[in-house]
Design brief:
About 65% of the residues lie in helices and about 10% in strands. With about 350 residues, the chain is of the alpha+beta class. The protein folds into 3 domains: about 70 residues, no CATH class; about 100 residues; about 150 residues, Reverse transcriptase/Diguanylate cyclase domain (Alpha-Beta Plaits), CATH 3.30.70.270. A 5-stranded mixed beta sheet has the order 2-3-1-4-5, sandwiched between helices. Helix 11 links the parallel strand 4 and strand 5. Helix 1 crosses helix 2. It is elongated and about 105 Å long. The structure holds guanosine-5'-triphosphate. The site of guanosine-5'-triphosphate has 20 residues, from strand 1, helix 8 and helix 9.
Length: about 350
């Protein structure tokens, strides 16, 4: 069980959660409640850090942000789910392998039986023996029929288990993708960073943090549905620049992250500038009113991984560089060398 609070502790926290929700103007629905409870409990330092950072920066804590925090820290962080998926996947693999072997063995056995029966008949035995042989042949035919049926069932089970395995693979893949934009999610990013860092500890990795400018105004003026469309089109544009070379991630509500292995700061900054220009050129037309919507721009922060830091510190530093691009007037690229100046 995740929470082991006593009745008293839980009701104290519930009172604090209520105050927190009131202060941040959030509805007390289950998702907001769960994230707030987790925050008040202080168990998850990363979640607390994000919320406090937003509160300090007076950035809005709205349903989108809370849903994102929920998905990121509460929903997928369920090791039982992951374990179940792994177990189901390996069970299906074992079943598929077993039914392959069983089908082959059955086939061999039936062939062997057929040829032995033929040999006995060809020996030209006397009547009582022939009767026994005929009886045996009759039973063998019946047995073969039933075995053939079973073999078909095995074949079917085999096909089904292959299909199931395929679906499980898809499910595993889906868990790594953000449903709105199709980009990778933070879980995929974490997995990939772990792989990169463990395979080659000194590997050069650049990160580009991308954030839409004044997106809250856009949402306010045109509504969240159009906001969603804009978000997914910008995401597609962003990922089109790095599809083969890097990992495009939806790291937060209207924030993306591009991870580029084996790239220096200069090349990463050039890529960031290309992405910025590409997004700036996008044109959006409202399908309802046919009116052209205002230009969407992005700010970007670029940094290189330093061996002394962990990936969380690395991404934190990249976020600081992004903030600099915002402070310098938005719709531009900043890189880590500008941080000190
Ligand atoms: N439509 C839509 N909006 C989202 C989504 N995720 C986050 N947002 C919105 O993105 C906005 C981000 O607002 P802010 O963090 O204030 O940033 P901003 O308005 O873009 O301003 P700057 O980043 O400072 O340029 C909030 O209004 C969120 O509700 C989403 O999935 N869909």
């Amino acid at each position: 069980m995740k929470y082991q609070d006593s009745l008293q502790q839980a009701s104290d926290k519930a009172a604090q959660v209520k105050l927190f929700l009131q202060r941040t103007n959030l509805a007390a629905h289950p998702i907001n409640y769960a994230v707030s409870y987790e925050y008040i409990s202080g168990y998850n330092s990363e979640l607390c850090h994000i919320i406090e950072h937003k509160l300090l920066a007076k950035a809005p804590l709205d349903d989108f942000v809370m849903a994102e925090l929920y998905i990121r820290f509460l929903a997928p962080a369920n090791p039982q789910q992951e374990q179940l998926l792994q177990e189901a996947s390996s069970m299906v693999s074992r079943m598929a392998a077993y039914s392959d072997v069983a089908a082959e063995q059955l086939d061999n056995y039936i062939q062997q039986l057929d040829s032995s029966m033929l040999q006995i008949k060809n020996l030209g035995a006397d009547t009582p023996l022939l009767n026994i042989v005929n009886q045996l042949q009759h039973s063998t035919t019946e047995f073969r029929l039933s075995q053939q049926q079973m073999q078909q069932q095995l074949l079917l089970a085999n096909q089904q288990s292959h299909q199931l395995r395929h679906e499980l693979e898809q499910l595993k893949q889906q868990r790594l993708l953000d449903p709105l934009t199709g980009l990778y999610n933070r879980l995929a990013m974490q997995n990939q960073l772990d792989i990169w860092f463990s395979e080659q500890p000194g590997r050069r990795i650049a990160a580009i943090a991308v954030d839409l400018d004044h997106f809250s105004r856009f949402n306010l003026e045109y509504g969240n549905t159009i906001g969603d469309v804009i978000l997914s089109k910008v995401a597609r544009k962003v990922s089109s620049y790095v599809q083969n070379s890097g990992l495009p991630v939806r790291s937060g509500g209207e924030e993306f992250l591009i991870l580029l292995p084996d790239v220096d700061l200069r090349s990463a900054s050039e890529i960031a500038e290309q992405v910025r220009r590409g997004v700036e050129k996008l044109r959006f037309v409202s399908s309802r009113t046919k009116k052209t919507l205002p230009k969407v721009t992005i700010s970007l922060g670029v940094s290189l991984y330093q061996q002394t830091e962990n990936w969380y510190q690395f991404l934190g530093r990249t976020a600081e560089v992004l903030l600099l691009a915002k402070q310098r007037g938005r719709n531009q690229v900043a890189n880590e060398t500008m941080l000190a100046t």
